[in-house]
């Protein structure tokens, strides 16, 4: 599956959610990721390249969309 399908689904799902609610959801998700990572041993993190997989699907992925997010935030003023 390419990235366009899931990205479009996410945009539509959260289209009418307030910015405060989105930020709250993201903070909760971030805290859950950190708690999950902290519960793992270094060996577990190394297995299956888990650390790289997490970084690729969190902050590195956000970087790909940062300009779109900045434009959106500017448009809602």
Description:
- The protein is an all-alpha fold and 77 residues long.
- It has a domain of 45 residues.
- Helix content is 78%, strand content 0%.
- The radius of gyration is 15 Å and the shape is elongated.
- The mean pLDDT is 87.
Quick take:
The protein has helices at residues 4-13, 19-38, 42-46, 50-56, 59-76.
Biggest sheet record: none
Continuous helix count: 5
Q: Which percent range describes the beta-strand content? A: under 5%
Structural class: mainly alpha
List the helices and strands and how they pair.
Blueprint: H1 4-13, H2 19-38, H3 42-46, H4 50-56, H5 59-76
Primary descriptors:
77 residues, mainly alpha, elongated
């Amino acid at each position: 599956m390419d990235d366009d399908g899931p990205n479009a689904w996410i945009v539509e799902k959260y289209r009418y959610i307030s910015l405060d609610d989105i930020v709250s959801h993201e903070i909760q998700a971030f805290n859950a990721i950190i708690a999950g990572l902290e519960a793992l041993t270094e060996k577990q993190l190394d297995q299956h390249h888990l650390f790289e997989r997490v970084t690729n699907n969190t902050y590195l992925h956000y970087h790909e969309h940062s300009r779109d997010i900045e434009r959106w935030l500017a448009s809602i003023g």
